[in-house]
Every structure is written in C-alpha cells, then in structure tokens.
Specification:
The chain is of the alpha+beta class and 362 residues long. The chain is 18% helix and 39% strand. The two termini are 27 Å apart.
C-alpha cells in the first residue's frame, strides 16, 4: 500500500515563530548583483559544432579572421568545430576590477555538444550597453557527454550548456547604488510580512538601546545610521541579530512529481471528506449480419457495445474542528491514499473554504 509522505517546514524552536538572522531573510537596499551577457564563439569541438544551416556562426568566424588580416569567403567555410554561444555571468555586489567569476555558456545554434571546446575572448555587457567584463577559457560540461554517428546517437545530461570556471575577469567597476556615507539605510525583506518587519525593527532597537529602526511597510525597515565612520561594522552587527520570522500558511503543490509541501500553520475547518475513483470502460466490437443464401438481403455491420463500470469504495471520514494537516494525512494513510489523492483533496478543501492556507501550484 502506498503511503503519503509530506515535507513539513518545521524548525524546532523554543518560541512559536522561526528565529533567523536578519541577513538571512533580508538585504540592504542598493546592495545588489548585476547580470552580464555577451555573444561569443566556442572552438576546438570534435565535429559537434554548428552545421552549415547556422549562418551566424560562420559569419562571426569570418569577421574574427578579417580582424587578423585573413580574408575568407564565408561560402567556402565548411567546419564543424565551431559553435555560436551566448555567455552570461552574475556579478556580486562590490565587485572590483580584476575579480574572477564563472560564466555560463549556452549554444544558440544546432551544435550537438560543447564538450572539449574553448570559449574565445568575449566581452560581457550590462543593460546600459557598456562592457564590464570579458570571458574566455575551456568549457566544463559537468559529467555530460554526447556520442553518435549517422544512424544513431547517445547523450547524457545537457551537453549544449557548460561553465567556464573562473573565466570571467571584471574590467570595470559596476555602478552600484550604495554609499557608505549615508544617514540611513533600508532593510528589504525577501518575503514581505508585517510581523517580521515589526520584529526586525524591535530587535534592532532592543539591541542598540535606542529607537533608530522603524518598519515602513511589510517589506522595508528603515534604520538610522549612528556609526557613520564604521558603517560596515554597524551593518555586520545588525545582520547577526536573531529575529522571529512569521510566515503565511501555505501549501505548495507540484502536480508533475506529486510533491506536496505544507507549512506548519495550515489549519482545516470541520469537514467531511469522501474520495474515491470511478472507472468506466467502453468496448465496441463490430458484429457482421449475413443474409440467407440466394436472398435479396445485404450484409450489415453493426457495433456491439459493452460498458463496464467499476466504482472504488472508500469510507467517508470526518475531519474534526481542531484538526491539523497531519491529522488529514493520517486519515488518508488509513484508507490507502496516494499523493495524487492528497493534491485533489487539498484543492477541493480550498474551494470549499475549509482549508485556511494559500495554495501555490508549481
């Protein structure tokens, strides 16, 4: 008998709420990462590069050779060891010129695999169009492979996307909107909540002994800076403070895998539940009717239909008033429920107004 296994978001704490550090649940306004993108070429592929149909890779190779004084007719190029790719990278806050990062390389043509290739020098730009970094280096697929011929091929994992480890070098300082000489800072919550924002403000005021923090809205806590000469130490102390984190009652459902994640605050009102399956099988068999010999009748084909109905019998169970989601799971296990049954019942409970939680389907 299949059993229902649930993942409960439960932390064992002395208080009824979760205790987390401020820096784990929020970020400082203005401290953000930048994403860069560029177009480049990967060379050195063992015949797994772009085909002749991918025109832009041949054009890019021709333009690159012309910059080195080599004039080649694009129509005469027949190579399979080059692939056109898009290169992306994420630059962390306060990145300085000379820092090295990883780059993600993805094929945009019809290349079979990037394994064994080398990314040529590729400028990476931000949304303002300026070049802030360059990328170059060998590509690591990470365990994937591709092998094949004209009649058959075999592959493991994704071989058209790879990583250039430490292949990105920051060339220009990015325009981060953050100044260390400021009178106040804003703490932005990753998951906005009125209670959590108020708890952060109270924790900061209680730690420093003065009222310098105030919750502006569910997502923002404004803090007046009292140590301008050493704001880094000031922010480090605030970030290490533990606060009680409140979360909404929520149920996350992945219907593709049958995974259900349920928060501990989910409650169910008094309700009676009956869940069973109805199977209907319809089978049609053609039946031939032949006329008597030497008669004027005609041969007629008539369908013979058989309908079989099987109804799964499952008991009706009552969920008491003080029931939690674990009580519902125990009841479903008792009648042999599956994760698919639980998903259907949770969605029906939400429609009936008996499930007091937000359902998110991913």
């Amino acid at each position: 008998m299949r059993r229902i296994f649930l993942i409960f978001l439960v932390l064992i704490l002395s208080s009824p709420l979760y205790a987390m550090r401020i820096k784990d649940i929020s970020q400082i306004y203005g401290v953000r990462s930048y994403r860069l993108i560029g177009y480049g070429l990967v060379v050195g592929l063992p015949g797994t590069g772009d085909k002749e149909q991918t025109v832009f890779s041949i054009q890019s190779l021709t333009n690159m050779l012309q910059r080195y004084g080599i004039n080649v007719d694009p129509k005469s190029i027949r190579i399979r060891n080059v692939a056109a790719v898009m290169v992306t990278a994420e630059v962390p806050p306060f990145a300085k010129p000379g820092m090295r990062l990883d780059a993600i390389v993805s094929s945009i043509g019809d290349a079979k695999s990037l394994q064994g290739g080398v990314l040529l020098l590729t400028p990476l730009r931000a949304v303002d169009g300026k070049v802030y970094a360059i990328a170059q280096g060998p590509i690591s697929i990470g365990g994937g492979f591709f092998a094949g011929g004209k009649g058959a091929s075999v592959s493991k994992n994704i071989t058209t996307t790879g990583r250039v480890v430490n292949g990105v070098i920051i060339e220009r300082k990015l325009p981060f909107d953050f100044s260390l000489n400021r009178n106040s800072i804003s703490i932005v919550l990753n998951s906005p909540d009125f209670n959590t924002a108020d708890n952060i403000a109270k924790a900061i005021n209680r730690y420093l002994g003065i009222n310098i923090a105030k919750a502006v809205d569910p997502a923002t806590v404004k803090v007046n800076v009292i140590e301008k000469n050493d704001i880094v130490d000031f922010l480090a102390k605030i970030g290490d403070l533990d606060v009680s984190v409140d979360t909404k009652a929520k149920v996350v459902i992945n219907e593709r895998t049958g995974t259900v994640v349920i928060g501990k605050d989910v409650r169910i009102s008094t309700v009676a539940i009956a869940h069973g399956g109805l199977s209907i099988v319809i089978k049609e068999t053609p039946k031939v009717s032949q006329p008597l010999p030497f008669s004027t009748g005609e041969t007629i084909v008539t369908p013979e239909t058989k309908i079989q109905i099987t109804e799964e019998k499952k008991p009706l169970f009552l969920v008491p008033k003080t029931a939690t989601i674990s009580d519902l799971v125990k009841a479903l296990n008792a009648i042999g429920g599956t994760p698919r049954d639980l998903i259907a019942i949770l969605e029906a409970l939400k429609e009936a107004g008996a499930l007091h939680a937000e359902i998110e389907v991913i």
